[in-house]
Amino acid sequence: xxxxxxxxxxxxxxxxxxxxxxxxxxxxxxxxxxxxxxxxxxxxxxxxxxxxxxxxxxxxxxxxxxxxxxxxxxxxxxxxxxxxxxxxxxxxxxxxxxx
Length: 99
Known about the structure:
This is Nitrogenase-stabilizing/protective protein NifW. There is one protein chain. By secondary structure, this protein is an all-alpha fold. It has helices at residues 3-6, 11-20, 24-30, 37-58, 63-80.
């Protein structure tokens, strides 16, 4: 486990860490969120925009809040692809709380 995660991270620390990521895969790995690389390749822009939006709205103060913002972004993009007329279950998100 990353040393930074074990220590109490301030809001500035977590924001600096997030800003240091060069791609969304780094963020997903850092926050221990499993992902499908084909899904990321196809929906990268939407996922990054959604994650950045959640960061602006929630202003995460620790690793867990930032992870929650990324999980929510990933899940929202996944769920937006489901057929709205059926009651299909969320699939593909390895960390989904809605299953």
